[in-house]
Amino acid sequence: MSVATLPTGYVGHGGWRGIQFWRLLPLIPRNILLALLHAYRSTVSHAYGDVCRYYPTCSAYAVGAVQQHGAVIGGARAFWRILRCHPWASGGVDDVPPGRRFRFELTPHGFVVPLRKD
């Protein structure tokens, strides 16, 4: 799996069209952090290759954590995961626990948008 490729659970078919701006406001910090993570994954992380002991990689885990839990809690979960990723870690599959109150859609690029009321 390529470093820049997100696991299938971290992308969706949602879109920005037809969503009122005021419904996007609470998601701005989350999506800004996701944009930064995508930039990191396409530059720095891409240069290192697949060196993480865990699946998904630490940067992909950070994307999933921010998507599911928001900028603050998701960022804290990602930070904790990075602290656990060291040469003596056993590694393995470590999926992001789903957010109990996650009521959003994901775009094909992994950004979070409100559910459409269609």
UniProtKB/TrEMBL annotation:
InterPro entries: Membr_insert_effic_factor_YidD (IPR002696)
Record keywords: Cell membrane, Membrane
Matching SMART domains: Haemolytic
Localisation: Cell membrane
Presence of keyword Membrane: yes
Membrane topology term: Peripheral membrane protein
Family: Belongs to the UPF0161 family.
Function: Could be involved in insertion of integral membrane proteins into the membrane.
HAMAP family in alphabetical order: UPF0161_YidD (MF_00386)
Stated name of the protein: Putative membrane protein insertion efficiency factor
Gene: yidD
